[in-house]
Amino acid sequence: MELPIQYTEKMQRLLGEEYPEYLASFEESRYFGLRVNTLKLSMEDFQKKALFSLSPVPWCEEGFYYLEKERPSKHPYYHAGLYYLQEPSAMSPGAILPIMPGERVLDVCAAPGGKSTQLGARLQGEGLLIANDISAGRAKALLKNMELFGIRNSVVMSEPPERLEERFSGFFDKILIDAPCSGEGMFRKEPDMVKSWNEEMLAFCQREQEKILDSCAEMLRPGGMLLYSTCTFAVCENEKSISDFLEKHKEFSLLPIEKKHGFSVGIGELQQCARLYPHKIKGEGHFLALLQKNGTAEKVMLTGEIGEKEKDLAPFLEFQKEVLKTKLTGTFKIFGESLYLLPKEMPSMKGLRVLRTGWQLGTMKKGRFEPSQAFAMGIFKEEVSNVEDFSLKDDRVIRYLKGETVEAEGKDGWTLVCVDGFPLGWAKRQGGRLKNKYAVGWKWE
Ligand SMILES: C[S@@+](CC[C@H](N)C(=O)[O-])C[C@H]1O[C@@H](n2cnc3c(N)ncnc32)[C@H](O)[C@@H]1O
Q1: Would you name the residues annotated as active-site residues?
Q2: Residue 438 falls inside a structural domain
Q3: What ipTM did this prediction achieve?
Q4: What is the CATH number of the domain that holds 397?
Q5: Average confidence score pLDDT of the chain
Q6: Which structural domain range is residue 409 located in?
Q7: pTM
Q8: Domains in the chain: how many in total?
Q9: In angstroms, rounded to a whole number, what is the distance separating the alpha carbons of residues 210 and 433?
Q10: Percent of the chain at pLDDT above 90?
Q11: Residue 332 lies in a domain
Q12: Residue 110 marked ligand-binding
């Protein structure tokens, strides 16, 4: 690979005698990782399935390396949202930021959702996750991944952090900033990134990072934690961004990140930060800084949405009686034709560009309720009375995922189609045939 001379000179100065090892890492092949969705199954149950030749990623409890030839994206369990494919180093920010179920979490640069799906799983369905990305196009990919993972308690949105700051002052317990950056740590994985590298880009990213950090400082509650990560080695986007931030925001302290698994210390005075180098770990380049806002404060309560009246939910309630074993509770809200179940303590999102507010259950049209793909992915087989559960070996699984009508005797009406007990999507059964309702854009190709 041809690297720009300014870049190699800079890396030589940064790494000193380690530089030849770093260069040699380009001759090695990259690593492939997957992260288990603990919302859907335990680590123990996942491992019992012995799906691929997996070995653990040391810094992420739910992470594994797999071999490229195994192609886990071509597996029905991938369609069931049992795991997310993620570069192993990219699992580190979500693993290091401590998340407790019930917290309010913001992932401010979230698309396509690698870290949001991780944070969402760690919330275990309790609390609130706001997954935001400034790019509306990229936020669509984020939305799909959040739905695939079956995360019920998230909001997916697309706003610049400055706009969020106006609404969410002191609101969040935890914030992740996986900042836009020059991507130097990804050169081995994505060689095309080398072409867009230049000094102006570094300066542009640094300015963006500063703005994002400032907005997030305002949105964090005193006592809350913020994790800042990049996938670059550039000091100006890492330690310099953090030291400038600490200079400006005296209300923040830098917390130490343990240096195990081959993690290196930060440059200069910011030794508490962590650097991940491809010649020291099995993964690509990353930078991590963990910050805490000093003090403590009462929870900020913001005005929420007013739920719908029961009479306006009639078609859904009928569906629920017919198809579910359980009764869903909480605040139900209709936006346009879509019915949502809102996460607890979700503030009103009026005036903000939102793609999803909570768990999208389906659409209400002409007095009829039609369940959505997100509903299927977020529900458990045990909560549904009308289920068709195929075993992995059954050829109807792939046929269903391809969008075909498949034969299966059973009670007529809406049916949740599963593989080995894990929901894949909906079908409408009539006379022993499952009319396919699998989401069009999700089909097996
Ligand atoms: C490194 S990527 C995020 C990857 C993501 N966290 C994941 O794990 O899948 C950085 C993201 O920041 C977004 N971005 C760039 N500038 C932003 C800004 N000012 N505010 C919010 N997001 C921004 C980009 O669209 C991009 O998707």
Answers
A1: 231
A2: yes
A3: 0.99
A4: 3.10.450.720
A5: 97
A6: 384-445
A7: 0.98
A8: 1
A9: 57
A10: 98
A11: no
A12: yes
